Amino acid sequence: MPRRVVRSEQAPDGDARRDDLDLTQVAVIVDAGDAHGSLIALLQRTQNEFGYMPEPAVDEIARLTGVPASRIYGIITFYAQFSTVPSGRHKIFVCHGTACHVAGATRITEAFEQELDVPDGKSTADMEFSLGAVACMGACSQAPVMRIDEETYGNLSADHTRKVIRELVKELGLEARYPGLAGAGSRAGGGGDA
Amino acid sequence: MPEPAGAPAAGVKVAVSAERDGKRRVSVCAGTACVFAGSMKVRDVFALEVEAAGLRDEVEVAIIGCHGLCSQGPLAVVSDGDTYYPRLKVKDVKRIVEEHLAGGAVVEKLLYVDPDSGARVACAHDIPFYSQQTRIALRDVGVIDPESLGEYLARGGYEAARKALTTMPPDEIVDEILASGLRGRGGAGFPTGTKWKFARSSPGDVKYVICNGDEGDPGAFMDASIMDGDPHAVIEGMVIASYAIGAHEGFIYVRAEYPLAVRRLRLAIAAAEEHGFLGEDVFGSGWGFKLKIKEGAGAFVCGEETALIASIMGERGMPRKRPPFPAVSGLWGKPTNINNVETFASVSWIIAHGAAAYAAIGSDTCKGTKAFSLAGKVVNGGLAEVPMGATLRHVIFDIGGGIKDGREFKAVQLGGPSGGCVPAGLLDTPVDYESLAATGAIMGSGGMVVADDTTCMVDLARYFLRFTQNESCGKCVPCRLGTKRMLEILERITAGQGRDGDIASLELLASTIKKTSLCGLGQTAPNPVLTTIRYFRDEYEAHIAARRCPALSCDALIAYTIDPEACTGCTLCAKKCPVNSARGEKKQPYAIDQALCIKCDACRAACKFDAVNIVSGPHEIAAAVAAQRGG
């Protein structure tokens, strides 16, 4: 059964591409950090704050900690958790663990790519959705699985996924922006006249 | 010391649910797979219905860690007779509350059905999946509420650490672990006692003990289940290790994707500190041990010891050359002992029950048990812990219940991206480090993904290579460039552009990468390719020479067509097709327009007449396309 997705409380409520970043939080995060070895934790908290690692925030961390920005970028680009670009308001993660792969995870990702016109690993032009792959969510017995914001889905098929997408877009009132959405339901009986 | 209930020596009892304060109890599984299947909703509805039935003072609704049989989720266990209710739907809950909890009658209709006999089974320990396991590392997982220290204590928790710290000299503990024969459960199988001995004998006042919870193999979830299902078992093992090797500080490095494990471990550490099981004066023994959590940031290579250490120090997680080994110079240059989650969870059992009891389980070279996460095309997916030396066949067929949908077993993939595929002919291989290594696979951390005849082995090899290539840290050339070249070849083969000599090129690259890479990631990365070439060479040849995918899986080599004899023109495929490629007239055979088809499988999955076929090979495709609509 497709379950409804509620708007995540953690989703940024304003424009995710805002340029006027409030960097005062960076100082708070840096001050709260403990001695050596906490750089990654500090970066994780910064990313939690902004949703990604904006360049001004990296510069500010470099200034406050004395760690060169080049080294910080070395870390940010090494670990998959960090992103230097903002993500969409709704985050879609399709599991590509081994069990999900053999159960057809590729078709799930393809369904999103096609329906929302977004390449894997990127966000839609309107910044509503970002699509990403995860190495393994550990729910292998429900494969293939995915997560949209805080809502989880198991035992998916491409068809079921398309239904979830259509319901989600409808629920968010975004149909006008996604006219290409393959409304298989709306074409009921269609194709017969080919 | 009290004997922990359900000790494997006395026969495994998986579903013992303690009745607290005289209350009866509904334990809802909160393991990851059950949560994905909707168990938290089931838990909430149980709480509401219990309240509505006026049973709040009698019945407690609790959560447990992964109960084990994930493919039956969401599941719950009712304490009266340990009644096991699998595959629960929200609408079933009211019935269980009214008939069972209020009425005292087991709801027969909702019990597990044995697939062989068709009989209803009320108790988890009467189900073969559970009854054939020997649970040591997983002894409390799925039994206790992972957020309750009291429940861990009620099962004999922290008695082993108390015994070790208050009655055993450190050397005696190391000797005990040595005598138990315990070997590293992260996959490499290095004797744990020897590792401890090195760290203990390394000079220095400051030493560290680290738990490697960076379970990165896709398809493996044993460590996650222990960390979020029985966090104190890990902490207790670490307390014992800290005292044995002389470390006053420890870290648990948890994979970024395991927020639940992080939360439960934090709660457990706080509770242990509060009760004096961690801190300045552990058990009043004068021994001090501080434990912290480090969250990973998403890098597979951090499972490698030296990379993990670099990551804890806030660096890029790049491995370095060994020696010096971490036991001599590890975290911040100090002697450091790193063990895996399952290893630590086994340590407290060994101290509690004695090395001899542990060494009595298992095979000649490998003692004790190993936990596996069973997934893929197997009937019973979930957590299985078996004595070392049990055969793959036993795990996959007796415990796992065989292959889904009555299909044929093709291979089992062990050890994830570092491991390999073992074919049907080797199903009687015993599960131990040496026997599995002889097949070309590895024991690995315990991921076991079963493939059936619809799984393409070339594609599986490509999948793993893409993973390791992506996760290669880039420090050494063989791994950084070699895996890239291998991936390119595999991508060509699965795209139908394989060339003569590709297999030989893969083998040459593989052997060079294995010999010359800096760390375990590169040294093992070619394994999935080498084992699939070794056992499924014909599949590679079919892709390259005949442009055919025998498993009918590689998109570039297959086509979806409709059999005009079987098609009734019901239009269902056309309704399901997202690109409008299934065309025809009602009540007449349909046909799939090959130019439009995206091979999403929706039509085949929907067809009630088995009229949609997948074909592979240029001639086969041409013939099937021509035959559509009766040619």
Protein architecture, described:
- The complex is a heterodimer of chains A (194) and B (631).
- By secondary structure, chain A is of the alpha+beta class.
- Chain A has helices spanning 24-32, 39-50, 55-65, 69-78, 98-102, 105-116, 158-171; strands spanning 90-95, 129-134, 146-148, 151-153.
- Chain A has two domains: 24-78; 90-176, Glutaredoxin, CATH 3.40.30.
- A four-stranded mixed β-sheet of chain A has the order 2-1-3-4, covered by helices on one side.
- In chain A, helix 1 (24-32) packs antiparallel against helix 2 (39-50) and helix 6 (105-116) packs parallel to helix 7.
- Chain A is elongated.
- Mean pLDDT of chain A is 83; it is low at 1-18 and 184-194.
- With 631 residues, chain B is of the alpha/beta class.
- Chain B contains 24 helices and 20 strands.
- In chain B, the strands form six sheets. In chain B, strands 9-10-8-7-11 form a five-stranded mixed β-sheet. Chain B has a five-stranded mixed β-sheet with strand order 13-12-16-14-15. Chain B has a four-stranded mixed β-sheet with strand order 2-1-3-4, covered by helices on one side.
- In chain B, helix 7 packs across helix 10.
- Residues 1-19 of chain B have low confidence and may be disordered.
- The interface between A and B is large, with 57 and 72 residues.
CATH architecture title of the largest domain in chain A? 3-Layer(aba) Sandwich
What is the residue-mean pLDDT of chain A, rounded to a whole number? 83
Structural class of the helix and strand makeup of chain B? alpha/beta
CATH class of the largest domain in chain A: Alpha Beta
Main β sheet profile of chain A: 4 strands, mixed
**CATH homologous superfamily label of the largest domain in chain A:** Glutaredoxin
End-to-end distance of chain B: 79 Å
Number of domains of chain A: 2
Shape of chain A: elongated
CATH class of the largest domain in chain B: Alpha Beta
CATH overall fold name of the largest domain in chain B: Rossmann fold
Oligomer: heterodimer
CATH names the topology of the largest domain in chain A as Glutaredoxin
- How many distinct beta strands of chain A? 4
What is the arithmetic mean of pLDDT of chain B?
93
The number of domains of chain B is 5
Strand share of the residues of chain B? 15-25%
C-alpha-based Rg of chain A, rounded = 19 Å
Runs of chain B in which pLDDT lies below 50 for 5 or more consecutive residues are: 1-19
